[in-house]
Design a protein that fits this description.
single chain; 64 residues; mainly alpha; elongated; Znf_put; Putative zinc-finger domain-containing protein
Length: 64
């Protein structure tokens, strides 16, 4: 089972690339029992979504 440090590293990695099956399973298991890491995961997803939206807006504005 992953500890919180390993879990936050996997959460960050998941924003950059697709996790393998074992990593996904370990992450889901830890998130089921750890409310702090669930919060970290929610925030990381929000930041990732905002960064992608900002990036696409920046790219489209440079094309004009």
């Amino acid at each position: 089972m992953l500890n919180c440090k390993e879990t936050t590293e996997l959460i960050s990695l998941s924003c950059e690339q697709k996790l393998n099956f074992k990593q996904q399973l370990q992450l889901k298991l830890h998130l089921m029992i750890c409310p702090r890491c669930r919060g970290f995961a929610r925030n990381a997803q929000k930041v990732d979504k905002l960064m992608k939206a900002f990036s696409s807006r920046t790219e489209s504005s440079t094309l004009e």
